[in-house]
## 1
Amino acid sequence: MTQRIVVLTGAGISAESGIRTFRAADGLWEEHRPEDVATPEAFDADPDLVHRFYNARRAHLATDGVEPNAAHLALARLEEEYDGDVLIVTQNIDDLHERAGSRNVLHMHGELLKMTCTSCASVREAWPELTVEAVCPDCRATGTLRPHVVWFGEMPIGLEEIFEALEHCSVFAAIGTSGNVYPAAGFVHVAAAAGAHTVELNLEPSEVTAGFAEVRLGPAASEVPRWVG
Ligand code: BJW
């Protein structure tokens, strides 16, 4: 079934749950340049560093304080109300949409709680600590497990389904994303060309704010429940 409402979420929706965004002054990239941790080349050059970066984020996600906030919960209510007509496309690798009760979630940049094998391509629930010495439980290769995430230069997940939904949606909302990273930053133009109403909900105008018909500025945990109603 084609979804009528497409919601794109980014790091800003999880900020009030205690997960740092990427590009804020205290963001993740302040400590780690993207090219050091979020490219296949970085993983080839220093897999230990990349594993430590993602192991730490996995551990943080499991800490008590990190819970879905009012914005995640409001989107789960939206899905309940418009049964089958809402697709959440998230760039986030956390599981807060699922924990809030959303069912139709597409993780276009992968999932922190999964690992994949570069040798046999199996995808499984990740162990808390991935290391270069780890052995793939499926093909028994050593040193081939990596976080199931999409790095720069890699193909995002589910693009065919996403573009199909964008081309047929009547509402497109982007929440908590800076509009720096493509192809997600271009989704608003696809939805607008399809005749959808487009709305941006963000703390500050994004790089692509001019493409939206409506812009609502403020913290997601307040703005998203207000928008969902
Ligand atoms: C709040 C808030 C609150 C804060 N409430 N709001 C030139 C050179 C090289 C490459 C390229 C190039 N031009 C384009 C490319 C391609 C490249 C790209 O976009 N590069 C740019 C840097 C230019 N893209 C890719 O390589 C992608 N693949 C690709 O293009 O494949 C080929 C293709 C061809 C044709 C069609 C389709 C595809 C892959 C991109 C992978 C991105 N991966 C990462 C890491 C994932 C794993 C991980 O989490 O570690 O994904 S990078 C990082 O950025 C992460 C995020 O999902 C992504 C987006 O960040 P996001 O979510 O927007 O976060 P922030 O921090 O930037 O913004 C937060 C926002 O929230 C801010 O606006 C705040 O104001 C706001 N906010 N608090 C509401 N409380």
## 2
Amino acid sequence: MTDLEEIQRRRTFAIISHPDAGKTTLTEKLLLYGGAIHLAGSVKARKTARYAVSDWMEIEKQRGISVTSSVLQFDYAGCRINILDTPGHADFSEDTYRTLMAVDSAVMVIDVAKGVEAQTKKLFKVCSDRGIPIFTFVNKIDHFGKNPFDLMAEIEDVLGIRSCPMNWPIGVNGNYTGIYDRETEMCHLFLKDNAHGVKKLEVISGKIDDEAIKSNLTPEIIESLESDLELLDEAGDPFDEEKVKKGELTPMFFGSAMTNFGVQPFLEKYLQLAPPPEPRKTLEGSISPEDPSFSAFVFKIQANMDPKHHDRVAFMRICSGIFEKGASVLHRQSGKMLRLSQPQQFLATERQTVEKAYPGDIIGIFDTGELGVGDTVCEKKHPVTFIDFPVFPPELFARISPESSMKRKQFLNGVGQLAQEGAIQVYKQPYIMESFIIGAVGQLQFEVMKYRLENEYNVTVNLDLMEYTTARWTEGDVPPEELIGIDNALVVYDRRERPVYLLPNAWQAGWLEQRNPKVKFLESPPVG
Ligand code: GDP
């Protein structure tokens, strides 16, 4: 296979959903199709915590959740698939968001009975801000569900994207018995009785007027299907590949991950429509995956993956060029050369050393503290700097201090390291030396921080949640004495010594903005 073919066959994506919509189940089914059976078990195990699968972090075992994101790689239908696993728990963190920077498309799983839920909305926004294609899988149609037209309207109202159903559930009043494939005009019916939600469903396929199909459907169901299809053809958005590519239209599939119904057709269509690695923006202009010069960016740093060795692994997404083991690359931010001598691929439960990797692939590099999240590594003779790596506005704040002042040194060291790793945002308050304020996007980040300070840095901390929900930076770092009406704001300083104004709610932030019309307020730190 040529290098170009290798690039073209890569599909790097994430599955996003609200907890319980079926992300784990769908991921497992995709892995099963890819023949990665031993991995499939581990996806579930990580969730149920019945087995200690992930040895990366004790907390994962305790809580039965994936705190870190790993990569699931397998081949299917000629494609090399990299699924970037994102924490599926309600308490998600910046890691989830950052992982979405490294994908080329996303699959959004929606529960047919629940529709678009809170976390789906947040994750969707991160993907849609990047303008990447998003595919919708409406799951659990073996169960009672919402009307599909209502779901389409909901997706448009809540997420602001139009949808194009590729298939359509067959059934009335939320009771579905199969799907109709709009492209092939085939009906696929499952026989409800032997489902019970566990076994693979028995399926009958045929055209709508085939006897085998007709005899299993009531005239009411057939009539309803025909009128729905007519309405879709007339009033629905036609499939438009360009719009899908730009993230303006989401192809919508109905199915049931648990019973395997509709999963394989979904996967095949998805691989056909989802984009291979595309050019990425850099400060020096766009860089294409076919460009022979190697470039990659770090989207995640994980320290102490093996607590015995105090190692630090930087996960990077390759954007251009071919990676070969032992290559020397330029770390753009420090200007230093790094030898990528022990590159690893982290495939759910096992590490493998990589000899060669292509754009779209993810590799983990042991790092000595040099690399930071968002950093670029590239070839010295072709330096580039990846941009658009956002910092997500924190929504939760807490004061953190060591329980014993004897541990102050370890505390400072630990907090400093975790901040550099990007695990948490750390702010200082003027004249207060014994505590910091930390900001996060999810509660779990606080717990992980507390746990890691205890286990990795041997310091027990007090963590007190504060009643602030909103942070504002200012353009040009306007100092507090130049602002009017900051009585309700807590003034803190970030690691670049920029003033940050913490406010109890967005309304108060709006009020502060109104009172200082000449100041430009920012919801996240200015880039740089
Ligand atoms: P996640 O939190 O999004 O990863 O969701 P899971 O994949 O763990 O699924 C949540 C629950 O829904 C589990 O009990 C699954 O067995 C169940 N589930 C997943 N897919 C289906 C489906 O297609 N039909 C039905 N009836 N249940 C499903």
